[in-house]
Amino acid sequence: xxxxxxxxxDTYRDTLSxxxxxxxxxxxLGRLPxxxxxxxxxxxxxxxxxxxxTAGLAGGALAAGQTVAGPVIGRLAxxxxxxxxxxxxxxxxxxxxxxxxxxxxxxxGLGLLMALGALAGATVxxxxxxxxxxxxxxxxxxRAGADDGAVSAVLSFEGTLDEVSFxxxxxxxxxxxxLAHPAAALLSAAVLLAVCGTAFALHPTAxxxxxxSTRTDAADRGRLPRSAYALRGTMVLQGAMFGAxxxxxxxxxxxxxxxxxxxxxxxxMGVTSAAVGLSLAAVPxxxxxxxxxxxxxxxxxxxxxxxxxxxxLGALYAVVVVLGAAYAPHLITVFGLTERSVPASRLxxxxxFLTSGIVGGQALALAVSGRLAESHGAPAAFAVAVxxxxxCAVLSxxxxxxxxxxxxxxxxxxxxx
Length: 417
Fold this sequence. Notes:
Elements: H1 2-19, H2 22-49, H3 52-80, H4 82-105, H5 110-122, H6 127-140, H7 148-179, H8 182-202, H9 214-220, H10 226-255, H11 261-279, H12 289-304, H13 313-341, H14 347-376, H15 378-398, H16 413-416
């Protein structure tokens, strides 16, 4: 055990030496508002309009805007560099979120609320996916060169930052709503977007992912391998698992007379996922990414099977916390496979596609499984989560990623330096 702990310590010490102390901090704080805005907009519109249906439509418009526009922002970052794209998007997103708060407090009509929600989603600066792209580039151009272990560690680290943000974000919204008003949470998110989004955009490492030359860009921007689309599909299914699980957890806790536990159960799952994500850096390099992907999807299936049969609060906590252990390995491995299989000049776009797929899959599954839960109870929603896990496993065994994954990728420094 002490030897394993030393391995973790050395691995993440090296990771922080690649990234520096400031970049992880501003990227974490910059992606935190994304985790706050979905729930925050839902609570705000519900309180000001008095209609859950109106709140759901406004929140759905926000998710749709992020799903559609996220890959576009990633593509712009690939073509023009991160600095200008992230700076403009961060400031525009801060303005859009503020406008949504003002409109909700003014009890604006549904049409305006949906339009502002869509704008707030479309201008999300995609700091999470772009931070991954930038961090990988920093590792690739460092003295580690093409050290796959270092890339795996930095992807695990970034995955953990995502998990923590998506646990902490809703918790902060709930706290602000309880102590003050949901508007306070969204306005705080707007300030974070403006300050930390700007800091991330202007950080000196933004030049690490400078756009490639015209010749290199034309050579690299070919068709994506079919496996890249399978990886995007599995992220949509992962989002569907999140949405269906959220609907099932909410329905079951209400049925058990403990609705306040819904957020706590979901947060506990996120904590487990984040902890396991950090441990992935210790997986031996000889275990390939395709093998890891298949193992992770098998874990999703096996660990989700008990969900439809849960009938008590204690059992719900136990099953969901254990299920969280399979989430991070799946997410981080898919990001790793994408990094190895897509052209370097389309990496930010591809990373943004993965994140947008999660958002879109979660929103769609939440809508569908929420209705199923109302009609047939929590087991129906949980069955959707199990079905999504099975579909993930089928994709991992049929996608044929091995043919397209490059074991080593030349460092980005040669193109951007």
